[in-house]
Amino acid sequence: MLNPGDYRVNPIKNTSWIELDKQAYQNNYRYIHSILKPNVKYSAVIKGNAYGHGIEKMVPLMEEAGADHFSVFSAYEAYKAFKSKKSETKLMIMGEVDDSDAMEWVIGHDIDFFVFDMARLELAVETAKKWNKKAGIHLELETGMHRTGFDERTLSRLAKFIREHQSQLEIKGMTTHYAGAENIANHIRISNQITTFNRLSDKLRRMKITAETYHTACSAATINFRDSHMDMVRLGILSYGFWPSRESFVLHIARKSKKNPVDPLKRVISWKTKVMSLKKVNVGEFIGYGTSYLAERDMTVAAIPVGYSYGFSRLLSNTGQVLIKGKKAPVVGTVNMNMTLVDITLIKGVKKGDEVVLIGDQGKMTNTVSSFSEMTQVVNYEMLTRLPADIPRIVV
Ligand SMILES: *Cc1c(COP(=O)(O)O)cnc(C)c1O
Q1: What residue owns the CA closest to ligand 1's atom 3?
Q2: Which of 32, 71, 223, 385 to mutate to test the pocket of ligand 1 (most atoms within 8 A of CB)?
Q3: CB of 237 closer than 6 angstroms to any ligand 1 atom
Q4: Nearest CA among 41, 163, 129, 168 for reference residue 92
């Protein structure tokens, strides 16, 4: 439910709003810990503006449930998270720290970061010296994804450099990332990556390079490959209540709850707007731009003030649906930049200002993210992260 007080604080509102369900996250947090051994740490991944949920609101919401370690992509995201987190909460950057200014800020604020090439490592040492601090680094190893990470042939040089600069470096982690653990077709590739990771970290161990924490798993690896858990898992999509793929859900059901096949995760996000205007359309008229929708009977349509510029994909033209008064209202015609028309002919008593659910529950009905992402061929991840940062987020 929208807490009206929250939303009305700002008299100039955006045309839609996103609600974040605190209890849903608490549920997911408990589920995540139920599948991890007690000594395995959970890092909540909040890159991509917390998968579209909004970093500023999600960080305190997640902290309240118990999360105390967050993973972001860049120094910029770390900066946003830093402003809303508790002082004792740990941040880890898995990707970009683009220059020496960013590096100074990162090390100065005790934020850990991945290191995947010598240039980054040298900059870390140089900056740590300036601050008279140790840089908290996570060594990323190349295990088969071929994106970022130290290649096997560079390990002895890496080890030598680290031994020579021990007073500036604290090896917080040893890490890698899997190339598509959500898909069973990649099973052999991922298994090989786990083997390679273990082999390379043993090799480094023999060169006297060890880390506090060994961590490799994202959501899909956590579900599909128990060997990947190690000391910590980095979970994005599961935290927000979504399965990384249909296959991982199926695997969960097969393993855990054949007798009671309920989804243990709860969706944190809902996205809502209001009916902006109503109109009667006579049989034989075209609706919206062009000729993509022809009224084959007398109809009533509602205009909603959300279009593709808000992340409501144009690919939902004539195929998407929203919920009004607990019923499905199909999109008619093309999704416009700021507006969309929906068919409410069969829904009685719709009025201007009625709540419209784009994602979420209304009455007994649910509009899921995957209902639109499957329709638009966009995976949950992309649909969510495309939600613009300036839609207000409200914790409920
Ligand atoms: C995005 C990401 C994760 C989390 O992925 P999910 O599938 O959302 O759990 C973990 N590790 C790295 C390096 C990532 O980029």
Answers
A1: 218
A2: 71
A3: yes
A4: 41
pTM higher than 0.90? yes
Q: How far apart are CA 285 and CA 299, in angstroms?
A: 10
Apex 304 CA angle, 301 and 309, nearest 5: 135
Per DSSP, the three-state class of 214 is strand
CA triple 46-48-51, angle to 5 deg: 65
Spatial neighbors of 224 by CB under 8 A, at least 6 apart, are: 181, 182, 184, 190, 247, 248, 251
- CA-nearest residue, atom 6 of ligand 1: 236
- Amino acid (one-letter) located at 334: T
Average pLDDT over residues 4-21: 73
> Is the Cβ atom of 218 under 6 angstroms away from ligand 1?
yes
What is the Cα–Cα distance from 155 to 116, expressed in whole angstroms?
11
Strand partners, 321: 330
Top mutation candidate among 28, 42, 45 for ligand 1, by most atoms within 8 Å of CB: 45
Give the whole-angstrom CA distance, residue 350 versus residue 327: 11
Burial 283-301 (b: 16+ CB within 10 A, else e): eeeebbeeeebebeeebeb
Q: Mind listing the pLDDT tens digit for each residue in 281-337?
A: 999 999 999 999 999 999 999 999 999 999 999 999 999 999 999 999 999 999 999
Q: How far is the CA of 236 from the centre of ligand 1 (A)?
A: 6
Are 347 and 325 in contact by the 8 Å Cβ rule? The answer is yes
Whole-angstrom distance, CA of residue 8 vs CA of residue 10: 5
221 in contact with ligand 1, CB cutoff 6 A: no
